[in-house]
Amino acid sequence: MFNLTTDEAVFTVIDLETTGFNPEKDYIIEIAAIKFQGSFEIERFWKLIKPETGFVPQHITELTGITNAMVVDQPLIKDILPDFFSFIQDTVIVAHNVKFDLSFLNHNTKIYLGRSIKNPSICTDNLARRILPDIDSKSLEHIAYHLSIPYRQKHRAMSDAEVTLKIFEKMLRFLEDYNVNRVIDIIKLSEGKRINYREKRKKYV
């Protein structure tokens, strides 16, 4: 996958809502993923998830709008992981602060599936720090505002994934103007490594 161009590779944009920041103590309560190739969406994956404690903390409900009533009859993370693992197979993972999402996913896949996610991954947060240095805040909301991308429902997994996808698509078009169009180079760029830019082909709008 690393040597594929951005038109050849299949990407999966993911986003999670959780009960906190620690994957060993907190739980995934919503997961969304959008699979696409080139400019075409292939498939979506979305689930609400009942936390193992059985309830959503009040401050998380206030942040996300996800209530106990919404998750009480939903599956546990162990029940949806096989389908999710299959969904992301042979794709490049994209997320805003991808380390956070992968930390929760890998903690759970190791427990329930006995393996971890090995997919190549790209962080739009890190990528923004390289190619959008003039934006003071690299939050999803601020980048969306800067790029004139509507952001209707914050802190819900599918809405956040949709916005991340639109941001990533604009980033890819920007990089294509500099002839940066291989997965490996975009990963290196997002990780802060040097790559060889070529002369810009046309003005980016």
Instruction: Give the neighbour order of strands across the main sheet.
Output: 3-2-1-4-5
DSSP summary: helix tally: 8
- CATH architectural name: 2-Layer Sandwich
CATH level-four homologous superfamily name: Ribonuclease H-like superfamily/Ribonuclease H
Tell me the distance between the termini: 29 Å
Question: What is the name of the CATH topology?
Answer: Nucleotidyltransferase, domain 5
Order of helices and strands: EEEHHHEHEHHHH
> Which structural category do the helix and sheet elements fall into?
alpha/beta
Task: Please tell me the overall pLDDT.
Answer: 94
Number of strands: 5
Estimated share of beta-strand residues: 15-25%
Percent range of helical residues: 25-40%
What do you see in this structure?
- The chain is α/β, with parallel strands linked by helices and 205 residues long.
- The chain has a single domain (10-190), classed as Ribonuclease H-like superfamily/Ribonuclease H (Nucleotidyltransferase, domain 5, 2-Layer Sandwich).
- 39% of the residues lie in helices and 17% in strands.
- It is built from eight helices and five strands, in the order βββαααβαβαααα.
- The chain has helices at residues 58-64, 68-71, 77-87, 98-112, 124-131, 140-146, 157-176, 183-190, and strands at 10-18, 28-37, 40-48, 92-95, 121-123.
- A five-stranded mixed sheet has the order 3-2-1-4-5, with helices on both faces.
- Strand 2 and strand 3 form a beta hairpin.
- Helix 5 (124-131) runs parallel beside helix 7 (157-176).
- It starts with 9 loop residues before the first strand and ends in a 15-residue tail after the last helix.
